[in-house]
């Protein structure tokens, strides 16, 4: 994985780490399920009207939207609304890294090198150290909800990788079309129309401005910028190589929560964060098995599948996408 791609992955981790503060601010005003629907609806409408179809199979787009959009953020927002601290949430959600490696090896048949396994184990050990230090301050249910969100993110990662988009930003934007309607339906049933209407008619109340600013950050930097860069990286490298960088998110998230929200960080948590960084660096330097790695990581070369063959969309010049993908 080229150094510039690693730096981009670190930028995404920083954006997503700060995103937990934005979510915390938004949850102070909006109901969690409705907030998920609102977050994606803001982007879904202009996407349908203005953004070209990403030229990927519909099933992988829906899978990406359900995993990354619906499952991840439903359980994350629910967990944070139920009492999960922002810093701890940023940590627990990064269990998506090990989940992705396992799912990638199982369903995509991606090879996992010894160094990569070691890196993931070290990073997981770091997460365990930080989690052990923080777990006694959080209830069990919010922890389990956030962990379920991490698994949803891993499902989205695998579908993202399988989609092989020609334009990653188009895929990231069209993914936002999937969550709004199902999440609005869930919100109407679980939270009720009164809670939804109340959050929209009290936007002038104290704290609403911070909630709107948090929503704007989540939409622009958490979804458009962060997800587009992440999708671009996932399309060029095996998911097991890119995913460990998500373990840097709690390093940024917990640091920001300490500075802004006053959440304390113990020496043990700092030690765990160092282990996470070391594990990510080892995992990202794992032996590169895919065809693009052998080609020097040049993104201009045709994408290859995990066996080193040209992906179906590149196998024949000018080939039309499969039926149902337009």
Give the termini distance in whole angstroms: 32 Å
Q: Roughly how many Å is the radius of gyration? A: 19 Å
The overall pLDDT average reads 81
Q: How many separate helices?
A: 15
Low-confidence region ranges:
286-326
- Share of helix among residues? 55-70%
Give the biggest sheet.
none
Given the helix and strand composition, which structural class is it?
A: mainly alpha
Q: Please report the total strand number as a whole number.
A: 0
Strand content: under 5%
Given the C-alpha coordinates, what overall shape results? Answer: globular
The SSE string, one letter per element, is: HHHHHHHHHHHHHHH
How would you explain this protein's 3D organization?
Residues 286-326 have low confidence and may be disordered. This protein has 326 residues and is mainly alpha-helical. Helix content is 69%, strand content 0%. The relative contact order is 0.21. Helix 1 crosses helix 4 (86-92), helix 1 runs antiparallel to helix 11 (208-234) and helix 5 packs across helix 7. The chain has helices spanning 3-27, 32-50, 58-81, 86-92, 96-107, 114-135, 140-163, 168-174, 180-190, 193-201, 208-234, 239-242, 249-261, 267-284, 291-294.
Topology:
Blueprint: H1 3-27, H2 32-50, H3 58-81, H4 86-92, H5 96-107, H6 114-135, H7 140-163, H8 168-174, H9 180-190, H10 193-201, H11 208-234, H12 239-242, H13 249-261, H14 267-284, H15 291-294
């Amino acid at each position: 994985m080229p150094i510039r791609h690693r730096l981009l992955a670190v930028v995404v981790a920083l954006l997503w780490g700060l995103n937990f503060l934005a979510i915390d601010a938004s949850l102070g005003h909006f109901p969690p399920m409705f907030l998920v629907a609102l977050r994606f609806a803001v982007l879904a409408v202009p996407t349908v009207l203005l953004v070209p179809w990403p030229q990927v199979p519909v099933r992988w787009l829906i899978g990406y939207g359900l995993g990354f959009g619906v499952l991840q953020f439903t359980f994350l927002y629910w967990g944070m609304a139920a009492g999960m601290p922002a810093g701890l949430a940023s940590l627990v959600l990064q269990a998506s890294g090990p989940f992705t490696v396992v799912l990638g090896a199982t369903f995509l048949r991606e090879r996992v090198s010894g160094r990569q396994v070691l890196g993931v184990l070290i990073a997981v050990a770091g997460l365990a150290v930080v989690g052990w230090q923080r777990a006694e301050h959080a209830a069990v249910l919010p922890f389990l909800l956030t962990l379920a969100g991490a698994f949803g993110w891993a499902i989205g990662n695998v579908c993202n990788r399988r989609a092989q988009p020609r334009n990653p930003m188009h895929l990231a934007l069209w993914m936002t079309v999937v969550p709004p309607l199902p999440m609005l339906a869930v919100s109407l049933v679980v939270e009720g129309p009164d809670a939804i209407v109340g959050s929209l008619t009290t936007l002038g109340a104290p704290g609403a401005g911070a909630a709107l600013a948090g929503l704007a950050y989540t939409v622009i930097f958490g979804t458009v910028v962060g997800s587009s860069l992440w999708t671009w990286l996932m399309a060029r490298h095996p998911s097991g190589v890119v995913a460990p960088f998500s373990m840097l998110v709690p390093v940024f998230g917990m640091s920001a929560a300490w500075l802004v929200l006053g959440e304390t960080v113990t020496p043990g948590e700092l030690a765990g964060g160092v282990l996470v960084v070391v594990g990510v660096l080892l995992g990202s330097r794992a032996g590169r098995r895919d065809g693009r790695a052998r080609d020097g990581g040049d993104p201009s070369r045709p994408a290859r599948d995990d066996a080193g063959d040209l992906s179906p969309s590149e196998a024949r010049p000018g080939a039309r996408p499969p039926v149902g993908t337009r």
